[in-house]
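G., before I forget:
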Amino acid sequence: DAGVIQSPRHEVTEMGQEVTLRCKPISGHDYLFWYRQTMMRGLELLIYFNNNVPIDDSGMPEDRFSAKMPNASFSTLKIQPSEPRDSAVYFCASSFARGGQETQYFGPGTRLLVL
Amino acid sequence: LAKTTQPISMDSYEGQEVNITCSHNNIATNDYITWYQQFPSQGPRFIIQGYKTKVTNEVASLFIPADRKSSTLSLPRVSLSDTAVYYCLVGDTGRRALTFGSGTRLQVQP
């Protein structure tokens, strides 16, 4: 398996622009997570899905952020409009949880810079 | 959610055994303990997971005492490539909202 695939790997944009990050989870995994990592705040869980349904979006910073999972093999995280404070590395992860045990597999991340 | 406390940083030399301890005093009955490793510019990578006693795999060992209020990740004979940040997580997949915390930055020197 190719693992979790994220695109783009790097994104530079200007404040106010819309940014869309993409994720393809590992085939067969039923959970998908979006994280954000910064030096100041560390690794934060933004939202996660189970069987394509958003379960907990309490970590989404504000209404400018939205996430969708139209099918089991694709998810997007959108920021509109983007702001400089959104600059971070965004990770997507997927997992297959059974019996209380779980391993999350992370993608390589998208490094976002908002100017 | 069970809060975890681990040292901010540790230093070691190649060939030594490294033990990183994590405290999780309010761990719940259904919680598992999981450790992840993160290299610069990469996403975290699963190392090991356990519920009680001892778990060993090809990479590390995880020691969990009977009260489960702490756990120790043991890395045998570390090499320079083990330099990374190590995160201890405690959670139940049913609750899902795992918190990574600040992790332990391990620096291995030659």
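Chain B has a mean pLDDT of 90. The CA atoms of residues 2 and 27 of chain B lie 5 Å apart.

More on Monday.
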